Amino acid sequence: MSQPLLDLQDVVFRWPGQAAACLDIANFQVAADEHVFIHGESGSGKSTLLNLIAGVLLPQQGRLTALGQPLPALSAAARDRFRVDHVGLIFQQFNLIPYLSVLDNVLLPCRFSRRRRERAGDMKQAAATLLNHLGLGEDLWQRPATQLSVGQQQRVAAARALIGQPEIVIADEPTSALDAARQEAFLGLLRQECAAARAALLFVSHDQRLAEGFGRRVDMAELNRAAGRGGDEGTAGEAAGAAVPASLPHPRPLSRGERGDQA
Question: Considering the entire predicted model, what is its pTM?
Answer without folding.
Answer: 0.83
